[in-house]
Amino acid sequence: MTSLKKKLYVPLFFLLLTACAVGISSEPVNVHLTDAIPASRPATVGEGLQAGDVMVGLSFSGGGTRAAAFAHGVLAQMATTPIIVRGEQQNLFQQVRFISGVSGGAVAATYYGLNGAAAVDDFRERFLIRNAEEGLRTTFSPRNLARVFGGGMNDSNRFSNWLDQNLFSGATFEQLNRPDRPRIFINATDIFNRAPFFFAPVTFNSFCSDLNAYPLASAVAASAAVPLVFTPVVIRTFPENCNAPMPDWVAGAMDNPDAPAIQRRLAEAFTRYRNGDTPFIKLLDGGVSDNLGLQGFLLVRLSSPTPFGPITEQSAVRIGELVIFVVNAGRGPSGDWDQTISGPSGQEMIAAITDSMLQSTSRNSLDALRLAMSDWQRELIDYRCRLSSTRVRELRGNLTGWNCRDLKIRITEVSFDALDPGLKGEVEGVETRFALPEGQVDLTIRAGRQALMRNPIFQALQAKYGSGN
Fold first, then answer.
1. What is the β-pairing status of strands 183-190 and 53-60?
2. Which of helix, strand or coil describes residue 197?
3. CA 302 to chain centroid
4. Residue 212 CA to chain centroid, in angstroms?
5. In terms of pLDDT, which residue wins out, 333 or 90?
6. Does residue 187 carry a pLDDT above 90?
7. Closest CA to 362 of 428, 432, 294, 451
8. Containing H/E element for 163?
9. On the CB side of 417, how many CA atoms lie within 13 Å of its CA?
10. Using CA of residue 221, residue 224, residue 228, residue 232, what is the dihedral sign?
11. Tell me: the pLDDT tens digits for 214-241?
């Protein structure tokens, strides 16, 4: 009888905990845009390009500190790769014009966007070898399980406070808005509207909130808020007396059933924000919608009203090539349960299902970006070739070396697949956490450097610009 009671009481105990669990929520920190839309850097990239320049874009995947360390290795290698630009020695990092990131990749993207090349020197010490999980609940005790059923094991403010105290020092998007830094795209997921959420002026204008005043730490925490481990980051909308203009593409996507899926999802979400149907936006890990962090830049391009956006008209006739490095710290299959009839275990099955979903959305995003960039290259060339010589001279400065068709847009993936088999096996064993042993951090940084150096497009850039050609 006693044994039977225990069998009955244990699940009853968890049921009671679940029933009593109260959802934890974080108070929104965004503020109402009461005045005119604040002056902010327009949604353009590549300002200041000169004739024939190469423009580099980066996207950093999710994957906790493993992803941040892999991204850091890539950036550190770029910063030590000398190239010749217009007769002057520079490095490849100086050609980076935008970085898009999600989760752990968003930490690296935002810190580099805020600090530029100086981040190469201290990101490892400031973040990678630190325990960003200190103060977080990470064990599944009965009480923590109750918190999970209540919406999340940890209040999302815990992580954002740690990031602010140790990395961002109170910085807001206003400090990120600098013409001498790469444009940064931070990606999260609006879980109620089942839509990507981008921390960009166009998004915040849709519900009349001031992006410039929003803390970077809160945005990065939203991008990294793993479901159930964290409660959602909450943003308040202000639909009352909201007169900020909505972009034309929103109405166009709502009226067009054949509009790109990402545009339509965003248009529907923006409309709900504006008309008051969504008074509180609930944000979780951007990897839920796209673990490669590609959709922010993809939306900016698809939503541009010009054939050259999001680069400027001047840059459109000056750019020689655009290379987007997709830095993917995702891991391949693991375990040995495919070798036996039995298995997987419950834990292995959950991990496999999660990885399958993340990789599926990532592949779809990468395919969509490749298609969009192919279309954009064609549209840019057509636009350039329709310009008069007089207009080209106005925008470009001269006609020396001008060839309207001399333009390439290339996308290339930097992943663990390029590594030596031994190094690949080791780095794929690194967990997806925000606290890693120092040895694993350095291993993953080394992997990022090696994967970039073995990338054929990186090697082609070295050959072309390193020789001064």
1. unpaired
2. strand
3. 17
4. 19
5. 90
6. yes
7. 294
8. helix 156-163
9. 11
10. positive
11. 999 999 999 999 888 888 999 999 998 8
Alpha-carbon distance of 337 to 340, in angstroms, equals 6
Q: Which residue has the tokens 């375990």?
A: 335
Average pLDDT over residues 356-362: 78
Contacts of 199 (CB under 8 A, 6+ apart): 173, 185, 186, 188, 211, 214, 219
Distances (CA, A) of 168 to 62, 111, 216, 359, 415: 19, 7, 7, 30, 28
Residue partners of 34: CB distance under 8 A and separation at least 6:
none
Query: In this structure, are residues 239 and 276 in contact, taking their beta carbons and an 8 Å threshold?
Result: yes
For residue 157, the one-letter residue type is N
Tokens of 80: 């030590």
d(CA 221, CA 223): 5
Which of 33-42, 291-300, 370-379 has the least mean pLDDT? 33-42
53 with 320: CB under 8 angstroms?
yes
Given a contact cutoff of 8 angstroms between Cβ atoms, the answer to whether 62 and 105 are in contact is: yes
Helix 346-385 to helix 295-302 angle (10° resolution) is 30
Q: Are 113 and 182 in contact (CB under 8 A)?
A: yes
Tell me, what amino acid is at 181? R
Q: What single letter denotes the amino acid at residue 375?
A: D
Average pLDDT over residues 325-353: 82
Region of poorest pLDDT, from 6-10, 55-59, 61-65, 435-439: 6-10
Cα 69 to Cα 1: distance, rounded to the nearest angstrom: 55
Q: Which long-range contacts (CB under 8 A, 24 or more apart) does 119-124 make?
A: 119/75, 120/72, 120/75, 120/76, 120/79, 120/93, 123/68, 123/72, 124/69, 124/72, 124/441, 124/445
**Degrees, nearest 5: CA angle 64-324-251:** 90
> From the CB of residue 425, how many other CB atoms can be counted at a distance below 10 Å?
13
Strand 233-236 to 280-285 pairing: antiparallel
Q: Which residues contact 414 (CB under 8 A, 6 or more apart)?
A: 74, 325, 326, 327, 328, 448, 451, 452, 455, 458
| 43 class by beta-carbon count within 10 Å (0-12 exposed, 13-18 middle, 19+ buried) | middle
